[in-house]
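User: Predict the full complex structure for these chains.
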Amino acid sequence: MTEDMAQLIEPLIPALRRYARSILKDGAAADDLVQDTLLRAVSHWRQRRSDGDARSWLFTILHNLAVNQLRRTARRGDMLPLDEADESDVSAPSTQEDGLRQHDILTAVNRLPDDQRSVLLLVSVEDLSYAQAARVLDVPIGTVMSRLARARARLLRIMDENSAPASSHPYLRRVQ
Amino acid sequence: MISTRPITEDELHAFVDQRLDATRHGEVETYLKTHPDVEARIARYRQHRDSLRSALAHVVEEPVPPQLNIRHLTEARRPDRGVPWRSLAASVLMLIAGAAGGWTLRGGGSQTSEANGIASLAQEAAYTYNVFGSDPTRPVEFGAADKSQLVSWISSRLGRPITIPDLVASGYRFMGGRLVATPHGPAGLLMFDNDQGGRLAVLVRPMRIDANAQMSKHAFGNLRGYAWASQGTGFTLISAAPADLLHPIANEVRRQESGGI
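Assistant: Here is the predicted structure of the two-chain assembly.
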């Protein structure tokens, strides 16, 4: 059983680290969160629903732990704004232009409300299906779809503000 | 054929995430051609999706740090009765090596949904099917008559016994197959056709990442694939046939393979 478990969990660790890193920004804190997730998964392996997939289950644990942590840090008021975060925590070493663009998109995503950002990351980056994302976030699929739509519309607005603050864009009137 | 169903906002997002079936995908494309403002918005959604993926891609390529090593984490919970720790440790190391190899092979951040083994398997099936599935001259190297030769050839190259699923009940006859090359080593391609000339193929190869994976649906242009893995062997059923036809056949292949290997 232990070997089965290791074989199912191990390949998911890089993606769990990526999701944790994208919502917490701080690399060390993100890895701590993944470690908590793995420990919990190992100790609760038997309670896993046999018909559920390991991927959704691990992301669910990670998401719930992250939400608790974000609430705690928000209360303490020591959440690290992305602008002050060490660049190496959130983006890859790259050419200056690439680096700027990547920083832009990450900064913009960071300005989304937590619930919209989670949906966007789970669906767009982690390739969870809408049904899997709904399971992870424990909301109906309709809610996943509306958060995704709002996340994308808002991201577009934020990116527009960043690139051309004063001009008006035809896209804006499409946004509800 | 032309659908009168209106395009929904949900479908536009499913289009961005490449989760629509081929027919609907085409209908959305047609819609976008005549609605440039929506098309511009959707193009930017896709562009944001791509930049976000590439901005975060490096994280999955980093080596997994020791405190996240699943072997260390399970060690504390080691039961007293005989657990084959040496072999578990070895297999975990192999998994890490496999994962590391997989990530480094991926190269730039432009690819999509390759982040796990099963998605690459499905992608490889699509590439292979695009080449051989439409080949009018020699779609298979060994025909159905040389089935036993084909089975022993593929089995020896994959290092595991493979079986040919029987899909006659689903209306598909075995045509034959061949060995093909993938970025993850050799794979077996098994081809089937029906009375209407419709074709489908099963691609089978060893899996180092995603040794066990639930069945997932993939779409590549006009092709659809169902991919899964069991005990280190991965399978993809790939075809241009509609998903509602393919899904039960994929289940049938999986049922036979789980009994057959």
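The radius of gyration of chain A is 18 Å.
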